[in-house]
Amino acid sequence: MRRHKRVRAVVKGTSERPRLSVFRSASHIYAQLIDDAKGVTLFSASDAKGVRVKPSSRGRVEGKVKDKKITVAFTVGETLAKKALEKGIDKVVFDRGGYKYHGRVKALADGARAGGLNF
Fold first, then answer.
1. Which has the higher per-residue pLDDT, 60 or 78?
2. pLDDT value of position 9
3. Which pLDDT value is given to residue 104?
4. What domains are there in the chain, each with its CATH number?
5. End-to-end CA distance of the chain, in Å?
6. What local confidence, expressed as pLDDT, does residue 62 receive?
7. What's the pLDDT at 61?
8. What would the DSSP string read from start to end of the chain?
9. Which of 12, 15, 63, 77 has its CB 3.0 to 4.6 Å from that of 108, i.e. a possible disulfide?
10. Is pLDDT of 57 > 70?
């Protein structure tokens, strides 16, 4: 909780640069773009809302999925980036939500960058 408050004291989203907020549960990962100036969520993406993993070489070792959660997080990031680019948003501020920047959180950020977002 302290780490989350410390991150949120610095990170603020605007209309031009919304905040990409990440929530990670034990089984799912959620991401949303938030305009803090207006106090509204612009849109969101998660693996619980039907994001499916595309068959790719990322996360695979000899035909087997190395870590499905990391692959899913990467796909969620790509999906959110696609939605953002359709709305004309290409720059965001990344809010890791107090989580350490590794594993699924890093994979989501990498997916968003691969999808075309700058942060």
1. 78
2. 75
3. 94
4. 2-115 (3.30.420.100)
5. 24
6. 44
7. 42
8. -HHHHHHHHH----SSS-EEEEEE-SS-EEEEEEETTTTEEEEEEETTTT--PPP-STTEETTEES-HHHHHHHHHHHHHHHHHHHTT--B-EEE-TT--SSTHHHHHHHHHHHHT-B-
9. 77
10. no
Tokens of 5: 């408050």
Tens-digit pLDDT profile for residues 75-102: 999 999 999 999 999 999 999 888 999 9
Arithmetic mean of pLDDT, 22-47 = 92
Q: What are 118's two structure tokens?
A: 């700058």
Nearest to 69 by CA among 108, 100, 43, 98: 108
Q: What is the pLDDT of residue 33?
A: 94
Q: Which two three-digit tokens encode residue 49?
A: 């809302």
Q: Which two three-digit tokens encode residue 2?
A: 């302290």
Residue 55 tokens read as 């068959």
Q: What burial letters (b/e) apply to 22-50, b meaning 16+ CB within 10 Å?
A: bbbeeebbbbbbbbbeeeeebebbbbeee
From the CA atom positions of the chain, what is the Rg in Å? 14
Distance from C-alpha of 5 to C-alpha of 10, rounded to nearest angstrom: 9
